[in-house]
Amino acid sequence: MSTGSTETRSDTPPSPDLAIRCQVVTPERIVLDEWVRQVVVPLPDGEFGIAKNHDPVIARLGYGSLRLKLATLDKNYFLDGGFLQIRDNHVVILTNRAQEATGLRAEEIEKDLASARSRPASDDVSIEARLTEIDKLRTRLRMAKRTK
Fold first, then answer.
1. Cα–Cα distance measured from residue 106 to residue 94, given in angstroms and rounded to the nearest whole number
2. Helices within the chain (DSSP H only)
3. How many CB atoms lie within 10 A of CB 16?
4. Is 5 within a domain?
5. Do 94 and 109 fall into the same domain?
6. Are residues 121 and 137 in the same domain?
7. 3-state class of 72 per DSSP?
8. Which of 46, 61, 108, 116 could join 82 via S-S bond, C-beta 3.0 to 4.6 A?
């Protein structure tokens, strides 16, 4: 996995099963650069599955679980929105935040959730922002509890 180093990654899949190159990029770094079998991303209105030889797509991402199927294991990340590009078995995900599910801590998220729920909101904009934050935290909490 590349984490922002200058290493060069081969454009040739390591095996026929691992035919999709998936890159997850945040403003700070390259979070992931792996060959995978399948990708499932969160959209604003559901999920979107990507397999080998998928048609080209550009899409807006929602927040939620990014699921990757590798050769022998699966990886899950929390994505906080962004954009997706699919072209020639290359998936690029640009997101503000990508956090591996194994790094999510339920206790910390529960504290953040309690704080968000108790924060006052007086107008439509602040109410909507608070509800979105609560929903994101609930999604992260579900992911944290699943990976225990």
1. 25
2. 106-118, 124-146
3. 8
4. no
5. no
6. yes
7. coil
8. 61
How many residues are given for the chain? 148
Phi, psi of 95 (to 5 degrees): -145, 155
Give the torsion through C-alpha atoms of 46, 148, 93, 12, to 10 deg. Answer: -120
Give the pLDDT band of residue 6 (cuts 50, 70, 90): very low
Helices (H), 36-94: none
Measured between alpha carbons, how far is 134 from 112 in angstroms, rounded to an integer?
9
Cα distance between the two ends of the chain: 23
- Domain enclosing residue 108, as ranges: 104-146
For 39, the enclosing helix (H) or strand (E) is: strand 38-43
Question: Is residue 36 a part of any domain in this protein?
Answer: yes
The type of residue at 71 is: A
pLDDT (tens digit per residue) in 44-69: 999 999 999 999 999 999 999 999 99
Q: What is the pLDDT of residues 112-124, one digit of tens each?
A: 889 988 888 888 8
Count of C-beta atoms within a 10 Å radius of residue 42:
22
Tokens of 81: 């929105």
User: Token pair of 49, please?
Assistant: 């599955």
Dist. CA 117–CA 107, nearest whole Å: 15
93 and 130 both lie in a single domain: no
